Amino acid sequence: MIDIGSQFGLGMFSWLVLPLMAWSLFWKGLALWHSSRRNKEWWFIILLVVNTLGILEIIYLFGVLKLKLHDLFKKN
């Protein structure tokens, strides 16, 4: 078994690498999708470039857009 985290010096926290990548990818994809559907070009660029483990994406979705959890996957 290949230990991905040890290649990056994470040692005993190497098991966190893949779950954090999945977490970040999920929120980034959701935020990018919502920003593009609303024609928010600047938000799309910022969200695409800045990596914050989903924190910026969550702020955008719930703080800026004021979405509720049940609205995240609705098609308008």
Compact summary:
The chain is mainly alpha-helical. It has helices at about 5, 15-35, 40-50, 55-65.
Helix content: 55-70%
How many beta-strand runs? 0
Q: In this structure, how is the largest beta sheet organized?
A: none
Strand content: under 5%
What would the principal axes of the Cα set say about the shape? elongated
Mean of all residue-level pLDDT scores: 86
Give unreliable regions as ranges: none
Distance between the termini: 44 Å
SSE pattern: HHHH
Task: Give me the number of helical elements.
Answer: 4
Radius of gyration: 15 Å
Structural class: mainly alpha
Descriptive overview:
- This protein is an all-alpha fold.
- The chain has a domain at 19-71.
- It contains four helices and no strands.
- It has helices spanning 4-7, 17-37, 41-49, 55-64.
- The N and C termini lie far apart (44 Å).
- The mean pLDDT is 86.
